Amino acid sequence: MKTWIAAAFAAALALPAWGAQMGDDGLYKEPWMRDTFKDLREDLAEANAEGKRLVLFVEQRGCVYCHKMHEEVFSDPEVSDYIGENYFVVQINLHGDTEITDLDGESLSEKAATQKWRVLFTPNIIFLPEEVPEDTSAIEASVAVMPGAFAKGTTIDMFTWVNEKRYLLDNGEDFQRYHARRIRERDDGNTD
């Protein structure tokens, strides 16, 4: 009996304490990720209808950096709540065979799309604008790409920077300057 209790306790500790669950495809599934038909034009329209920004999360099975992001960053309520409130998230499997339709209308597998988008490693987060010309692929239309695993501060700053449309030239603050300012503000205790 004691062995069973110890095993159950160990198994409980191994499960994520946040909202993410491991899917059948070996990728983490956050509560704010959408299960769509992966027609990116439809996803963009739905995101716009909800007043959210479309973002693509490219991940792969066994990715230690994806695990780190889900365990250490997306598990933080500030980050998770912000993403859930402001973003329409579609997950793309770097090596997946599920058919998707890119924003330019091309239908291809997830792995072919990620090759087309020149995604070399995971996680890779692709942020999209509200409007995309008909003949433009997701990577061509992207307003920002977050390649790799980053800490909470960098992640929340990137999601906020995109959501506030600071990438537009007339807003005058590129991401590096914005992020440096936000770090100083956090260090000074002025986070609002």
From TrEMBL:
The keyword Signal applies. InterPro entries: SoxW, Thioredoxin-like_fold, Thioredoxin-like_sf, Thioredoxin_CS. Gene3D superfamilies: Glutaredoxin (3.40.30.10). Residues 1-19 form the signal peptide. Keywords: Redox-active center, Signal. The keyword Iron does not apply. Pfam families: Thioredoxin_2. Residues 48-131 form the Thioredoxin-like fold domain. This is Thioredoxin SoxW. The lineage of its organism: Bacteria, Pseudomonadati, Pseudomonadota, Alphaproteobacteria, Rhodobacterales.
